[in-house]
Amino acid sequence: MRKILKDSLGERKKFVGIFVKLGKKKNYRGYSEETILLKNITDVETGKTVTDHAWFAYTKSFQSIALLPGAQIQFEARIKEYEKGYRNVRYKIDNRTIDYRLSHPTKVSLVGI
Q: Taking residues 10-22, what's their average pLDDT?
């Protein structure tokens, strides 16, 4: 589903998503980091759904708004590509593929509940 983002690679666009829940992950240093899950993310300009879900870091911009499950959140994000999948150099296994993500969310605001 994220293949729609390929056409806008490198651009910063406005999106709307529905808040689901907070989570945690370990960062690259092994420390716990809070995250936020948004679902049904749509491009405001076209009205098309670009992805069914996306995880973001729970930054100050997300913390500044009142988050309740089901709340609609509007934000701007840059579209970037990344490699996903498994790679093992020793056994010459490379199952990586290119996928697209929303990166560096800014101008976060609450649209509705």
A: 96
